[in-house]
From TrEMBL:
Superkingdom: Bacteria
Organism: Sphingomonas metalli
Name of protein: O-succinylhomoserine sulfhydrylase
GO CC terms in record: cytoplasm
Encoding gene (name): metZ
Gene Ontology biological process terms from the UniProt entry: 'de novo' L-methionine biosynthetic process; homocysteine biosynthetic process; transsulfuration
Length: 402
């Protein structure tokens, strides 16, 4: 495997993100294939026993086992690192494998973590259930308020963990303010950047230490595979993350890595188009539903902050009807084009009722505290013509009595 002849890292690393998304990390085999090769292999062979020994000792370059390295997976890791502006990246089998690894690799009994209150259901499970089970104390705060992080800090606080915009309430976290609080105290910030992706928001530019992804969402972008990624400094990835993941094995399959490589080629185009359509659909809904939470619209209480941190709004937003679960379900059932689905980041428009799906595992009390009401719906705006989406929502709203 080699880079293009004469390709100079000092030049390729200067390419802009949209170029990195297409070409970053590409390595070619002896056949010179233009599209990235898919290496479906679990192991590697050595010419001589001494080569195997040297590779295991880290004295010879080369791969030893696909739990540790794989050429296709490595291309994806380099591409994501280049897009993120991070020194290093490791991919994982899913977004949750990425979040779990990013937290467990650096925390131990006696430590304390401060997490964002509004979060993906399984991320809240990590904070509320898994970590405390291993003696890691956690405090959950309203992440919209940087002071809340400061107030929750204890001498043993090691990690701040949050997403922005958050799933599904679209709470926005002031990255610069919260990362500065962490930096001053030697606390590591772990940002779940699934909603924005590096195409719209690069948390490291605001001082974040670790950026973690569900690549299942916008990075694949076509609803095909599960994947995750963790980005950080080379030192943190090599010495903190890798000892954990090499031995526990939340490894991404080469096939899924290849699919995400193909997805990244169109990330910039898709996310900009989906963001534009999402604003158009949001504007229509503003006049038709009682509540809407859309970071791309001035009605969002943190619109200015969101637009300062993000290049565009992203495809996802939330709305709420006053008729509770019954009216929310009636609206979903009346849709003709938009699918009822709890996935996001897909090229298809999808809508879900978080209280009975993604956040059904969270108690009603916690949902209330997170701001997830019974009338809330989350919409992922896809690549269809936005006018068709508006017409579908229009007829469904009418049938649901709105
Ligand atoms: C989907 C999602 C996850 C989990 O990712 P999987 O790939 O489904 O494991 C974590 N965080 C956020 C914000 C998500 O949207």
């Amino acid at each position: 495997m080699k880079r293009k002849t004469g390709q100079d890292r000092s030049i390729t690393s200067q390419w802009r993100p949209a170029t990195q998304a297409v070409r970053g990390g590409t390595a070619r085999s002896e056949w010179g294939e233009t599209s990235e090769a898919l290496f479906l292999t679990s192991g590697y062979s050595y010419d001589r026993a001494a080569d195997a020994a040297a590779r295991f000792a880290g004295e010879q370059e080369g791969m030893t086992y696909s739990r540790l390295q794989n050429p296709t997976v490595e291309m994806l890791e380099q591409r994501i690192a280049l897009l993120e502006g991070a020194e290093s990246c490791r991919t994982m089998a899913s977004g949750m494998a990425a979040m779990t690894a990013a937290l467990l690799c650096q925390l131990q009994a006696g430590d304390h973590l401060v997490g964002g209150r509004a979060a993906f259901g399984s991320c809240r499970w990590l904070t509320d259930t898994l970590l405390p089970k291993f003696g890691i104390a956690t405090t959950v705060v309203d992440a919209r308020d940087p002071q809340a992080f400061l107030d929750a800090v204890r001498p043993e606080t090691k990690v701040f963990f949050f997403e922005t915009p958050a799933n599904p309430t679209m709470d926005v976290v002031d990255l610069a303010a919260v990362c500065a609080i962490a930096r001053e105290r030697g606390i590591t910030t772990v940002v779940d950047n699934a909603f924005a992706t590096p195409a719209l928001q690069r948390p490291m530019e605001y001082g974040a230490d670790v950026v973690a992804y569900s690549a299942t969402k916008m990075m694949d972008g076509q609803g095909r595979v599960l994947a995750g990624a963790v980005c950080g400094t080379r030192d943190w990835i090599d010495n903190t993350l890798l000892p954990f993941t090499r031995n526990t094995g939340p490894t991404l399959s080469p096939f899924n890595a290849w699919v995400v490589l193909k997805g990244l080629e169109t990330l910039d185009l898709r996310i900009r188009r989906q963001s534009e359509s999402s604003v158009a659909v949001g504007r229509f809904l503003e006049g038709r539903v009682p509540h809407i939470l859309h970071p791309g619209l001035p009605s969002h209480p943190q619109h200015a902050l969101a637009m300062r941190q993000m290049a565009a709004a992203g495809p996802i937003f939330a709305l709420a009807v006053d008729g509770g679960r019954e009216q929310a379900h009636a609206l979903l059932d009346a849709l003709e084009l938009i699918d009822i689905s709890n996935n996001i980041g897909d090229s298809r428009s999808l809508m879900t009722h978080p209280a009975s799906t993604t956040h059904a595992g969270v108690t009603a009390e916690k949902r209330e505290e997170m701001g997830i009401g019974e009338g809330m719906l989350r919409l992922n705006v896809g690549l269809e013509d936005p006018q068709d989406l508006i017409e579908d929502l229009d007829q469904a709203l009418t049938r649901a009595g709105l």
